[in-house]
Design goal:
Strand content of chain B: 15-25%
Structural class of chain B: alpha+beta
Oligomer: heterodimer
Number of helices of chain B: 25
Radius of gyration of chain A: 23 Å
Order of helices and strands of chain A: HHH
Helix content of chain B: 40-55%
Number of strands of chain A: 0
Strand content of chain A: under 5%
Helix content of chain A: 55-70%
Number of strands of chain B: 28
Shape of chain B: elongated
Distance between the termini of chain B: 58 Å
């Protein structure tokens, strides 16, 4: 049954990892602007050069 | 043969979506309404950025009547540039602009690809809600002036004013810290609850293995509770400590609501630690973590505001950043704050006069509407003194500065003490008043219970005392206020009434007097009604007048020209035209002498007296009549006033003349309408009313109301476009919702009643809890279920009731 000790510690460590990620994200300012990223993610990657685009149009 | 019906298709500008007059400006099959739009399209096409138009059709911003040539020359000046920059080095500069015209996803896309438009721009990032564009660029390759001009050309003109310079680097650290605390405490709460599960299901302590586990879980919970107590609850503990110290020193008799909360938190923690290490039994860690978590969430709700609206603007956000100055025979651009007496400054058409000054060259037509509320431009000649805040319409002026900006007639208003002290919000007062009695009663009950058990069963002495202190935490009570108020705020926001913070809703409750400004508040901001009084004009005469008025740039002429709707109008040829500054205009049109102007200019109209803004018309020496320009009152303004008049005392303080007196008088009591009020008069008037014990709501729109808005208990700025400019205020009301003002006032009363109701509910919970506690039998499981349950149910009750009432009141 001592596996329980191990499990409890492991679960806390995993959760602690997420907590660390949350702290980092907050300090990085990711919660300062919660709207613009939702718009930004919908943009396509930029087309590399004009020629490429012309070809695509053809 | 199929007959084709004539399709009259509207030509729509490919860039901005406005209607094009004809197809003269076009590239391939795309039409443009003006050259500005065409230029933007060409820039985007050259840089392969036409995705802009694919994201949203006709996404662009109309560039008609925009001209920024020379407007940004001051950005070349090193010092001014440095004041705008966030960061400066040899190869990298960083700057943040406020760009008001950002409106759709295409804007985000284009502005974030701005580095492709101009070489030298390294990166650009947009915050859509705040409309802030952060740019970094290489100053060797591109200058700030070029960037701003290019942005302006594209339609994204950054707003640069005196406030943009030297702005403090605001980082919302308080907000971030709170989010961090909620995260950490939430983490601890979840894990403590998980670790407490064995306890909830009663471990068999006779079994030595299980007892081992129990100890392990207890210590684990203790470890997890450390950050909750020392980090999460630190604000409450500190707050209570400060308030206690002040009470002991007798500097204040306000008993902060933090004190009963801190008592509960400390008791919970100490009792838990005692149970863990002395009794080897479960503590109340789960209740503690839950309590702190809910308190922090309540605090977070309290801080929510509309961060895309600005409620704190002063004259600095209205004044220009820099002006062209001649000092000691050197012309340069200078920050207007550096102006000194004796400097010569140059003011162009549509520019703002930044300091009190005397005209040394040129004729002034000064529009003071924003400062005084007066609607007519005032003409000034060489030698006249001009007060800061007016806008020049017409030719270039040369002025000699008389006073520095900070001491000018207008800006002195901001030196009034009303601007330095914060408004007192009754919420905290109410909660603090309550907390004194609450704490006293709790301690009395705890002592009585303790004494009782000391006599009859001494072993329960400490148990019962601590249990009472723990369960009597005013947690649910402190939560009901922020949740009800933030729900109310959201409901108001949905109806385009934006309040600065939750305190404003409570301040609204106490209002018993409402003061209106006239221009821009009761009347509409930018529309005028023009009527002609006199002989009826024939179509020929109307054409004559229109031909005359379109020659002039004077604002009145423009209004009159626009009001004359003539089908298929073609201007007559003009033989002669002359404009007499501040007097009138005259012209000879196909043999007719047409004159339009003031009473003194039109001699035959000397004896006429008209109160409203007006212009006499004379054709060939005969007085035909006069044009009257009246401001248009808002829709249903009479019903609104009559409605409000039932419950509130109404006043009008207007900076304008008394032309509208007759119109207003029936809706107001005697002696409540005051005209020709200077900004300082308005402030003093409100101050007087407040001394009489009245709570004043001020509704205004311009800088002339700034002092009054600040002095009043609640200042509401009314605005046609909430994102543009409004003076510092407590709430911004969208002009289209003016009719609902009475509903908003009523609903703020409703929501305070809801708070009171949930106060009572949470007191009921407290009584039930104390009932258990005095028996000394508050088990950890019971506390862990009861305490969060009471908090959550009070919150649900408050929020649900608020929404329900909003639904019934159709808000």
């Amino acid at each position: 049954m001592s596996i329980l000790f191990f499990l409890a510690v492991a679960s806390i460590l995993v959760a602690g990892g997420f907590l660390a990620a949350f702290i980092w994200a907050t300090k990085d300012g990711q919660y300062d602007d919660t709207y613009t990223p939702s718009v930004r993610m919908l943009f396509d990657n930029p087309v590399k050069s004009p020629e490429l685009k012309d070809k695509k149009d053809d | 043969m199929i007959m084709l019906a004539e399709v009259h298709e509207k030509l729509i500008c490919f860039h901005c979506g406005d209607e094009c007059p004809d197809d003269s400006i076009a590239i391939e099959d795309k039409c443009f309404c003006c050259h500005g739009c065409q230029i933007v399209f060409e820039i985007l096409q050259d840089n392969n950025l036409c995705t802009y138009y694919e994201l949203n059709h006709n996404a662009g911003i109309s560039l008609k009547a925009k001209n920024f040539e020379g407007k940004y020359s001051y950005l070349k000046e090193r010092e001014i540039e440095a004041q705008l920059l966030d960061y400066q080095s040899e190869n990298l500069n960083k700057v943040t602009f406020y760009v008001p015209s950002v409106h759709c996803s295409s804007c985000v896309w284009l502005l974030e690809n701005f580095n492709k438009v101009r070489k030298g721009v390294i990166s650009s990032r947009l915050n859509f809600i705040k409309k802030e564009l952060s740019l970094s660029y290489n100053p060797v390759e591109v200058s700030l002036k070029e960037i701003v001009e290019l942005l302006a050309t594209l339609g994204y003109e950054p707003l640069l004013n005196l406030e943009s310079a030297n702005k403090p680097q605001q980082k919302n650290t308080t907000q971030r810290n709170l989010i961090l605390k909620i995260g950490v405490v939430g983490f601890c709460m979840g894990n403590i609850m998980m670790m407490s599960f064995p306890e909830y299901f009663h471990l068999d302590l006779e079994n030595s293995i299980d007892a081992n586990y129990q100890k392990f879980f207890l210590y684990f919970n203790f470890m997890l509770s450390l950050p909750v107590f020392f980090y999460g609850a630190s604000d409450y503990l500190n707050g209570a400590w400060i308030s206690l110290k002040e009470n002991i020193k007798k500097t204040t008799d306000v008993f902060s609501v933090d004190i009963p909360i801190a008592v509960a938190i400390i008791t919970l923690y100490c009792r838990s630690v005692y149970e863990t290490f002395v009794n080897d039994s479960a503590g109340y860690y789960d209740s503690l973590a839950g309590l702190v978590f809910f308190l922090l969430v309540g605090k977070w709700m309290q801080q929510i505001t509309y961060n895309y609206l600005s409620f704190e603007r002063n004259y600095k956000s209205y004044f220009p950043l820099a002006v062209k100055v001649l000092r000691e025979n050197v012309t340069s651009f200078m920050n207007v704050m550096e102006l000194k007496k004796g400097d010569a400054i140059y003011i162009h058409h549509q520019e703002l006069i930044p300091a009190d000054a005397i005209i040394s060259k040129g004729k002034g037509m000064i529009d003071y509407s924003f400062v005084t509320g007066e609607s007519d431009p005032i003409s000034k000649n060489v030698g006249d003194i001009l007060y800061a805040g007016g806008r020049q319409k017409g030719e270039r002026l040369e002025l000699i500065v008389q006073k520095p900006v900070s001491q000018s007639y207008l800006t002195q208003l901001w030196n009034n003490e009303a601007f330095t002290k914060e408004k007192v919000i009754p919420t905290t007062e109410m909660a603090n008043l309550f907390s004194k009695y609450f704490t006293a009663i709790t301690f009395t009950i705890a002592i009585i219970a303790g004494l009782y058990w000391a006599i009859f069963q001494p072993s329960l002495f400490w148990n019962s005392i601590t249990a009472v202190l723990m369960v009597a935490c005013p947690c649910a009570l402190t939560l009901s206020m922020p949740f009800t108020m933030s729900t109310t705020m959201a409901i108001f926001g949905r109806n385009k009434f934006y309040v600065k913070n939750q305190g404003v809703i409570q301040l609204l409750n106490e209002v018993n007097e409402i003061i209106f400004d006239k221009t821009g508040t009761l009347t509409e901001g930018n529309s005028e009604k023009v009527s002609f009084i006199g002989y009826e004009l024939s179509e020929f005469e109307m054409k004559l007048v229109k031909t005359l008025t379109i020659q002039s740039t004077h604002p009145l002429s423009k209004i009159i020209a626009n009001s004359l709707k003539i089908k298929d109008f073609n201007a007559f040829p003009i033989d002669y035209f002359k404009e007499f500054q501040g007097e009138g205009i005259e012209s000879s049109i196909i043999g007719n002498l047409v004159r339009l102007g003031k009473g003194g200019f039109i001699k035959s109209a000397l004896n006429e007296e008209v109160k409203h803004t007006h212009s006499f018309l004379e054709i060939n020496g005969i007085l035909i009549g006069y044009f009257v320009i009246e401001s248009v009152f808002r829709k249903n303004w009479q019903t609104i006033l009559n409605n409000l008049g039932k419950n509130f005392k109404l006043f009008i303080l207007s900076g304008d003349n008394d032309a509208d007196n007759e119109k207003l008088a029936p809706h107001f009591k005697e002696n409540t309408i005051h005209f020709k009020q200077k900004p300082q008069d308005k402030l003093n008037f409100i101050n007087n009313e407040q001394r009489k014990g009245n709570h004043v709501l001020m509704i205004g729109d311009g800088l002339n109301d700034a002092g009054a808005l600040r002095q009043s208990n609640v200042g509401i700025a009314i605005s046609e476009d909430i994102k543009v400019f409004s003076p510092a205020c407590d709430a911004i009301l969208d002009a289209s919702k003016f009719e609902q003002l009475a509903d908003f006032l009523k609903f703020s009363k409703t929501s305070l009643n809801i708070v009171k109701a949930s106060f009572i509910l949470s007191l009921v919970y407290n009584f039930i809890g104390i009932g258990w506690a005095v028996t000394g039998e508050l088990s950890p499981v019971l506390a862990a279920i009861f305490m969060p349950l009471s908090s959550i149910s009070v919150v649900l009750f408050a929020v649900g009731l608020t929404h329900l009432f909003a639904y019934f009141k159709k808000l």
